Amino acid sequence: MGRLRAVEPASAFEIESSPDLRPASDPGDPPRRRAARPSIIVEFVRLIMVALFALGGWEVAHDAAPDHTGALVLGIALGCGIGYVLGGAFGRSTVTAVSEVERELRRLPAADILGSAIGLVMGLLLAVLVSIPIFHLPPAAAYPSVAFIYLTSAYASARIGRSKSEDLFALFGVKPRAAGFRRGEITVLDSSAIMDGRIHPLVEMGFLGGTLLVPREVLDELQTIADSSDPLLRSRGRKALDLLLTLKRDPAVDLILVEEPAVAGEAVDARLVRLCRERGGVLLTNDAALAKLAEALEVPARTIHALADALRTPILPGERLSLRLTRRGRERGQAVGYTEDGTMMVVEEAGHRVGETVPVAITNVIQTSTGQMAFGKVLPEDAS
Hints:
By secondary structure, this protein is of the alpha/beta class. The protein folds into four domains: 19-107, no CATH class; 110-176, no CATH class; 183-309, 5'-nuclease (Rossmann fold, 3-Layer(aba) Sandwich), CATH 3.40.50.1010; 316-383, CATH 2.40.50.140. It contains 13 helices and twelve strands.
Protein backbone atom coordinates (compact mmCIF):
# COMPACT_ATOMS: atom_id res chain seq x y z
CA MET A 1 0.00 0.00 0.00
CA GLY A 2 1.38 3.37 -0.98
CA ARG A 3 1.65 6.39 1.27
CA LEU A 4 0.46 9.88 0.50
CA ARG A 5 1.14 12.82 2.77
CA ALA A 6 0.95 16.59 2.53
CA VAL A 7 4.34 18.28 2.71
CA GLU A 8 3.63 21.96 2.15
CA PRO A 9 0.53 24.14 2.46
CA ALA A 10 0.33 24.01 -1.34
CA SER A 11 -0.47 20.28 -0.91
CA ALA A 12 2.66 18.82 -2.46
CA PHE A 13 2.69 15.04 -2.27
CA GLU A 14 5.02 12.19 -1.69
CA ILE A 15 3.57 8.88 -2.82
CA GLU A 16 5.36 5.57 -2.95
CA SER A 17 4.19 3.03 -5.49
CA SER A 18 3.17 -0.40 -4.28
CA PRO A 19 5.65 -3.19 -5.09
CA ASP A 20 3.34 -4.95 -7.55
CA LEU A 21 2.99 -1.85 -9.72
CA ARG A 22 6.51 -0.49 -9.56
CA PRO A 23 8.60 -0.78 -12.71
CA ALA A 24 11.32 -3.39 -13.04
CA SER A 25 13.93 -0.65 -12.89
CA ASP A 26 12.89 1.29 -9.82
CA PRO A 27 13.26 5.05 -10.44
CA GLY A 28 14.07 5.46 -6.77
CA ASP A 29 17.28 3.47 -7.11
CA PRO A 30 20.58 5.21 -7.85
CA PRO A 31 21.50 5.28 -11.57
CA ARG A 32 24.41 2.90 -11.06
CA ARG A 33 22.20 0.35 -9.35
CA ARG A 34 19.55 0.50 -12.11
CA ALA A 35 22.17 0.08 -14.81
CA ALA A 36 23.86 -2.77 -12.93
CA ARG A 37 20.80 -5.04 -12.89
CA PRO A 38 20.69 -5.90 -16.63
CA SER A 39 24.49 -5.83 -16.93
CA ILE A 40 24.82 -8.52 -14.25
CA ILE A 41 22.53 -10.81 -16.23
CA VAL A 42 24.43 -10.13 -19.45
CA GLU A 43 27.79 -10.83 -17.83
CA PHE A 44 26.48 -14.01 -16.19
CA VAL A 45 25.22 -15.35 -19.52
CA ARG A 46 28.47 -14.29 -21.18
CA LEU A 47 30.49 -16.17 -18.53
CA ILE A 48 28.53 -19.35 -19.19
CA MET A 49 28.97 -19.00 -22.97
CA VAL A 50 32.71 -18.34 -22.61
CA ALA A 51 33.12 -21.48 -20.47
CA LEU A 52 31.15 -23.63 -22.91
CA PHE A 53 32.96 -22.36 -26.00
CA ALA A 54 36.34 -22.62 -24.27
CA LEU A 55 35.57 -26.27 -23.51
CA GLY A 56 34.43 -26.77 -27.10
CA GLY A 57 37.62 -25.16 -28.44
CA TRP A 58 39.72 -27.41 -26.24
CA GLU A 59 37.86 -30.48 -27.50
CA VAL A 60 38.34 -29.50 -31.15
CA ALA A 61 42.04 -28.71 -30.65
CA HIS A 62 42.56 -31.96 -28.71
CA ASP A 63 41.00 -34.01 -31.50
CA ALA A 64 43.05 -32.19 -34.18
CA ALA A 65 46.45 -32.15 -32.37
CA PRO A 66 46.29 -34.00 -29.03
CA ASP A 67 50.00 -33.56 -28.22
CA HIS A 68 50.41 -29.96 -29.36
CA THR A 69 50.15 -27.53 -26.44
CA GLY A 70 50.05 -24.45 -28.66
CA ALA A 71 47.06 -25.83 -30.55
CA LEU A 72 45.22 -26.47 -27.26
CA VAL A 73 45.90 -22.92 -26.07
CA LEU A 74 44.82 -21.50 -29.44
CA GLY A 75 41.60 -23.55 -29.38
CA ILE A 76 40.76 -22.36 -25.86
CA ALA A 77 41.53 -18.72 -26.77
CA LEU A 78 39.38 -18.84 -29.92
CA GLY A 79 36.58 -20.51 -27.98
CA CYS A 80 36.72 -17.81 -25.28
CA GLY A 81 36.62 -15.04 -27.90
CA ILE A 82 33.66 -16.52 -29.74
CA GLY A 83 31.86 -17.20 -26.46
CA TYR A 84 32.48 -13.61 -25.29
CA VAL A 85 30.93 -12.10 -28.44
CA LEU A 86 28.01 -14.50 -28.75
CA GLY A 87 27.45 -14.45 -24.98
CA GLY A 88 27.02 -10.66 -24.98
CA ALA A 89 24.51 -10.77 -27.83
CA PHE A 90 22.63 -13.69 -26.29
CA GLY A 91 22.68 -12.05 -22.85
CA ARG A 92 21.16 -8.81 -24.15
CA SER A 93 18.50 -10.79 -26.01
CA THR A 94 17.75 -12.69 -22.80
CA VAL A 95 17.32 -9.45 -20.83
CA THR A 96 14.96 -8.08 -23.50
CA ALA A 97 12.92 -11.29 -23.58
CA VAL A 98 12.64 -11.40 -19.78
CA SER A 99 11.54 -7.73 -19.70
CA GLU A 100 8.86 -8.39 -22.34
CA VAL A 101 7.56 -11.43 -20.44
CA GLU A 102 7.50 -9.41 -17.21
CA ARG A 103 5.64 -6.58 -18.92
CA GLU A 104 3.05 -8.96 -20.37
CA LEU A 105 2.54 -10.70 -17.03
CA ARG A 106 2.11 -7.32 -15.34
CA ARG A 107 -0.70 -6.48 -17.76
CA LEU A 108 -2.58 -9.73 -17.10
CA PRO A 109 -4.91 -9.91 -14.08
CA ALA A 110 -3.80 -12.31 -11.36
CA ALA A 111 -6.99 -14.35 -11.77
CA ASP A 112 -6.21 -14.96 -15.47
CA ILE A 113 -2.64 -16.07 -14.71
CA LEU A 114 -3.77 -18.46 -11.98
CA GLY A 115 -6.58 -19.78 -14.18
CA SER A 116 -4.11 -20.43 -17.01
CA ALA A 117 -1.76 -22.24 -14.62
CA ILE A 118 -4.57 -24.48 -13.34
CA GLY A 119 -5.67 -25.22 -16.90
CA LEU A 120 -2.08 -25.98 -17.92
CA VAL A 121 -1.65 -28.52 -15.09
CA MET A 122 -4.96 -30.22 -15.93
CA GLY A 123 -4.01 -30.36 -19.60
CA LEU A 124 -0.65 -31.97 -18.86
CA LEU A 125 -2.30 -34.59 -16.63
CA LEU A 126 -4.77 -35.36 -19.41
CA ALA A 127 -1.92 -35.62 -21.93
CA VAL A 128 -0.11 -38.14 -19.68
CA LEU A 129 -3.18 -40.37 -19.58
CA VAL A 130 -3.79 -40.14 -23.31
CA SER A 131 -0.15 -40.76 -24.27
CA ILE A 132 0.25 -44.00 -22.27
CA PRO A 133 -1.22 -46.31 -24.98
CA ILE A 134 0.57 -44.37 -27.73
CA PHE A 135 3.96 -45.49 -26.40
CA HIS A 136 3.11 -49.02 -27.62
CA LEU A 137 3.49 -47.77 -31.19
CA PRO A 138 6.88 -47.81 -32.96
CA PRO A 139 9.20 -45.05 -31.65
CA ALA A 140 9.18 -43.21 -34.99
CA ALA A 141 5.43 -42.68 -34.67
CA ALA A 142 5.08 -42.61 -30.86
CA TYR A 143 7.40 -39.74 -29.94
CA PRO A 144 6.08 -37.16 -32.48
CA SER A 145 2.51 -38.09 -31.55
CA VAL A 146 3.16 -37.72 -27.81
CA ALA A 147 4.90 -34.37 -28.35
CA PHE A 148 1.93 -33.12 -30.40
CA ILE A 149 -0.54 -34.25 -27.71
CA TYR A 150 1.43 -32.54 -24.92
CA LEU A 151 1.76 -29.24 -26.79
CA THR A 152 -1.86 -29.19 -27.95
CA SER A 153 -3.32 -30.16 -24.58
CA ALA A 154 -1.15 -27.67 -22.66
CA TYR A 155 -1.97 -24.75 -24.98
CA ALA A 156 -5.70 -25.46 -25.25
CA SER A 157 -6.09 -26.09 -21.51
CA ALA A 158 -4.25 -22.88 -20.60
CA ARG A 159 -6.48 -20.85 -22.93
CA ILE A 160 -9.63 -22.47 -21.55
CA GLY A 161 -8.47 -21.95 -17.97
CA ARG A 162 -7.85 -18.27 -18.63
CA SER A 163 -11.21 -17.70 -20.34
CA LYS A 164 -13.10 -19.56 -17.59
CA SER A 165 -11.08 -18.20 -14.65
CA GLU A 166 -14.04 -16.29 -13.21
CA ASP A 167 -16.32 -19.35 -13.27
CA LEU A 168 -13.50 -21.49 -11.87
CA PHE A 169 -12.99 -19.22 -8.85
CA ALA A 170 -16.74 -18.94 -8.37
CA LEU A 171 -16.82 -22.70 -7.63
CA PHE A 172 -14.74 -21.97 -4.52
CA GLY A 173 -16.72 -18.88 -3.53
CA VAL A 174 -14.09 -16.40 -4.76
CA LYS A 175 -15.19 -13.37 -6.81
CA PRO A 176 -12.26 -11.99 -8.85
CA ARG A 177 -14.16 -8.84 -9.77
CA ALA A 178 -14.81 -7.98 -6.14
CA ALA A 179 -11.16 -8.62 -5.31
CA GLY A 180 -10.03 -6.24 -8.05
CA PHE A 181 -8.32 -8.89 -10.15
CA ARG A 182 -10.24 -8.45 -13.36
CA ARG A 183 -9.28 -6.27 -16.28
CA GLY A 184 -10.76 -2.79 -15.97
CA GLU A 185 -10.29 -2.57 -12.19
CA ILE A 186 -7.29 -0.29 -12.85
CA THR A 187 -8.16 3.32 -13.67
CA VAL A 188 -5.65 5.93 -14.83
CA LEU A 189 -6.61 9.46 -13.78
CA ASP A 190 -6.10 12.55 -15.91
CA SER A 191 -5.60 16.01 -14.40
CA SER A 192 -8.91 17.22 -15.87
CA ALA A 193 -10.81 14.40 -14.14
CA ILE A 194 -9.10 15.14 -10.81
CA MET A 195 -9.81 18.88 -11.05
CA ASP A 196 -13.43 18.13 -11.89
CA GLY A 197 -13.95 17.24 -8.22
CA ARG A 198 -16.65 14.61 -8.74
CA ILE A 199 -14.41 11.55 -8.42
CA HIS A 200 -14.91 11.14 -4.69
CA PRO A 201 -18.75 11.11 -4.90
CA LEU A 202 -18.42 8.46 -7.62
CA VAL A 203 -16.26 6.38 -5.28
CA GLU A 204 -18.69 6.83 -2.39
CA MET A 205 -21.63 5.73 -4.56
CA GLY A 206 -19.76 2.70 -5.91
CA PHE A 207 -19.45 3.88 -9.53
CA LEU A 208 -15.64 3.91 -9.26
CA GLY A 209 -13.37 1.54 -7.36
CA GLY A 210 -10.30 -0.67 -7.56
CA THR A 211 -6.84 0.79 -8.15
CA LEU A 212 -6.41 4.43 -9.22
CA LEU A 213 -3.12 5.30 -10.93
CA VAL A 214 -1.81 8.88 -11.03
CA PRO A 215 1.29 9.39 -13.23
CA ARG A 216 3.99 11.70 -11.92
CA GLU A 217 3.40 14.08 -14.85
CA VAL A 218 -0.25 14.57 -13.83
CA LEU A 219 0.76 15.33 -10.24
CA ASP A 220 3.33 17.84 -11.51
CA GLU A 221 0.59 19.57 -13.54
CA LEU A 222 -1.62 19.84 -10.46
CA GLN A 223 1.23 21.23 -8.36
CA THR A 224 1.98 23.81 -11.07
CA ILE A 225 -1.68 24.87 -11.11
CA ALA A 226 -1.73 25.00 -7.28
CA ASP A 227 1.23 27.42 -7.40
CA SER A 228 -0.33 29.61 -10.10
CA SER A 229 -0.54 33.39 -9.66
CA ASP A 230 -4.20 33.25 -10.72
CA PRO A 231 -6.28 32.95 -7.51
CA LEU A 232 -9.00 30.88 -9.24
CA LEU A 233 -6.53 28.40 -10.75
CA ARG A 234 -4.59 28.23 -7.49
CA SER A 235 -7.78 27.41 -5.57
CA ARG A 236 -8.79 24.70 -8.04
CA GLY A 237 -5.30 23.17 -8.00
CA ARG A 238 -5.22 22.99 -4.21
CA LYS A 239 -8.69 21.46 -4.09
CA ALA A 240 -7.52 18.83 -6.58
CA LEU A 241 -4.52 17.97 -4.39
CA ASP A 242 -6.78 17.81 -1.33
CA LEU A 243 -9.03 15.44 -3.29
CA LEU A 244 -6.07 13.11 -3.85
CA LEU A 245 -5.43 13.09 -0.10
CA THR A 246 -9.09 12.21 0.49
CA LEU A 247 -8.96 9.39 -2.04
CA LYS A 248 -5.75 8.09 -0.46
CA ARG A 249 -7.54 7.72 2.88
CA ASP A 250 -10.65 6.14 1.34
CA PRO A 251 -10.63 2.33 1.92
CA ALA A 252 -12.74 1.72 -1.20
CA VAL A 253 -9.88 2.59 -3.58
CA ASP A 254 -6.11 2.24 -3.72
CA LEU A 255 -4.46 5.43 -5.02
CA ILE A 256 -0.93 4.87 -6.36
CA LEU A 257 1.56 7.26 -7.93
CA VAL A 258 3.34 5.82 -10.98
CA GLU A 259 6.90 7.07 -11.17
CA GLU A 260 8.14 5.08 -14.16
CA PRO A 261 10.54 7.09 -16.34
CA ALA A 262 8.77 8.58 -19.36
CA VAL A 263 9.98 8.12 -22.93
CA ALA A 264 12.08 11.04 -24.15
CA GLY A 265 9.92 13.65 -25.86
CA GLU A 266 6.67 11.85 -24.96
CA ALA A 267 3.65 14.10 -24.36
CA VAL A 268 1.56 13.70 -21.22
CA ASP A 269 -1.49 12.52 -23.20
CA ALA A 270 0.56 9.86 -24.99
CA ARG A 271 2.03 8.82 -21.65
CA LEU A 272 -1.45 8.32 -20.17
CA VAL A 273 -2.61 6.22 -23.12
CA ARG A 274 0.57 4.12 -23.05
CA LEU A 275 0.19 3.53 -19.31
CA CYS A 276 -3.38 2.31 -19.85
CA ARG A 277 -2.25 -0.13 -22.53
CA GLU A 278 0.66 -1.47 -20.47
CA ARG A 279 -1.39 -1.94 -17.28
CA GLY A 280 -4.64 -3.03 -18.93
CA GLY A 281 -6.43 -0.08 -17.34
CA VAL A 282 -9.17 2.40 -18.22
CA LEU A 283 -8.53 6.11 -18.78
CA LEU A 284 -10.72 8.52 -16.79
CA THR A 285 -10.66 12.02 -18.26
CA ASN A 286 -12.81 15.04 -19.07
CA ASP A 287 -10.62 16.01 -22.03
CA ALA A 288 -12.62 15.23 -25.19
CA ALA A 289 -9.49 15.26 -27.39
CA LEU A 290 -7.69 12.82 -25.10
CA ALA A 291 -10.73 10.54 -25.04
CA LYS A 292 -10.77 10.53 -28.86
CA LEU A 293 -7.04 9.72 -28.93
CA ALA A 294 -7.57 6.80 -26.56
CA GLU A 295 -10.51 5.56 -28.64
CA ALA A 296 -8.40 5.71 -31.82
CA LEU A 297 -5.72 3.58 -30.12
CA GLU A 298 -8.34 1.09 -28.83
CA VAL A 299 -7.83 2.09 -25.20
CA PRO A 300 -11.03 2.20 -23.09
CA ALA A 301 -11.79 5.71 -21.85
CA ARG A 302 -14.50 7.09 -19.58
CA THR A 303 -15.56 10.67 -19.05
CA ILE A 304 -17.40 12.11 -16.06
CA HIS A 305 -19.34 14.40 -18.40
CA ALA A 306 -20.69 11.36 -20.28
CA LEU A 307 -21.79 9.74 -17.01
CA ALA A 308 -23.47 12.95 -15.88
CA ASP A 309 -25.27 13.26 -19.22
CA ALA A 310 -26.47 9.66 -19.02
CA LEU A 311 -27.99 10.33 -15.58
CA ARG A 312 -29.76 13.55 -16.60
CA THR A 313 -33.47 13.62 -17.29
CA PRO A 314 -33.89 13.81 -21.07
CA ILE A 315 -35.10 17.16 -22.42
CA LEU A 316 -37.27 17.14 -25.54
CA PRO A 317 -38.35 19.96 -27.85
CA GLY A 318 -41.79 21.27 -26.94
CA GLU A 319 -41.39 20.90 -23.17
CA ARG A 320 -42.10 23.90 -20.97
CA LEU A 321 -40.35 24.88 -17.76
CA SER A 322 -39.52 27.82 -15.53
CA LEU A 323 -35.95 28.99 -15.95
CA ARG A 324 -33.89 31.62 -14.16
CA LEU A 325 -31.78 33.63 -16.60
CA THR A 326 -28.32 34.22 -15.15
CA ARG A 327 -26.37 36.04 -17.90
CA ARG A 328 -26.44 37.33 -21.44
CA GLY A 329 -25.64 35.04 -24.36
CA ARG A 330 -23.10 35.43 -27.14
CA GLU A 331 -25.58 36.66 -29.73
CA ARG A 332 -27.61 39.82 -29.42
CA GLY A 333 -30.82 39.39 -27.45
CA GLN A 334 -29.88 35.98 -26.04
CA ALA A 335 -29.92 35.02 -22.36
CA VAL A 336 -28.50 31.91 -20.70
CA GLY A 337 -29.87 29.85 -17.84
CA TYR A 338 -29.34 26.40 -16.35
CA THR A 339 -31.87 23.71 -15.52
CA GLU A 340 -31.86 21.86 -12.18
CA ASP A 341 -29.62 19.09 -13.57
CA GLY A 342 -27.12 21.62 -14.97
CA THR A 343 -28.14 21.62 -18.64
CA MET A 344 -27.28 24.92 -20.33
CA MET A 345 -30.18 26.61 -22.10
CA VAL A 346 -29.98 29.56 -24.49
CA VAL A 347 -33.18 31.63 -24.65
CA GLU A 348 -33.81 33.88 -27.64
CA GLU A 349 -34.99 37.50 -27.27
CA ALA A 350 -34.58 37.45 -23.49
CA GLY A 351 -31.42 39.50 -22.97
CA HIS A 352 -33.38 42.25 -21.24
CA ARG A 353 -34.77 39.79 -18.65
CA VAL A 354 -31.51 38.56 -17.13
CA GLY A 355 -31.99 37.89 -13.41
CA GLU A 356 -35.68 36.96 -13.80
CA THR A 357 -37.40 33.56 -13.73
CA VAL A 358 -39.41 33.21 -16.92
CA PRO A 359 -41.54 30.47 -18.56
CA VAL A 360 -39.61 28.92 -21.44
CA ALA A 361 -40.55 26.50 -24.22
CA ILE A 362 -37.75 24.28 -25.55
CA THR A 363 -37.32 24.57 -29.30
CA ASN A 364 -34.16 22.52 -29.95
CA VAL A 365 -31.67 20.28 -28.15
CA ILE A 366 -28.14 19.53 -29.41
CA GLN A 367 -25.39 17.25 -28.09
CA THR A 368 -21.93 18.76 -27.62
CA SER A 369 -18.62 17.31 -26.46
CA THR A 370 -19.33 18.57 -22.94
CA GLY A 371 -22.99 17.54 -22.74
CA GLN A 372 -26.43 18.70 -23.86
CA MET A 373 -27.33 22.27 -24.75
CA ALA A 374 -30.91 23.39 -25.26
CA PHE A 375 -32.46 26.37 -27.02
CA GLY A 376 -35.79 27.94 -26.16
CA LYS A 377 -38.02 30.95 -26.33
CA VAL A 378 -39.89 32.94 -23.70
CA LEU A 379 -43.58 32.14 -23.38
CA PRO A 380 -46.24 34.71 -22.61
CA GLU A 381 -46.96 35.01 -18.90
CA ASP A 382 -50.45 33.51 -19.25
CA ALA A 383 -48.96 30.40 -20.97
CA SER A 384 -47.01 29.36 -17.87
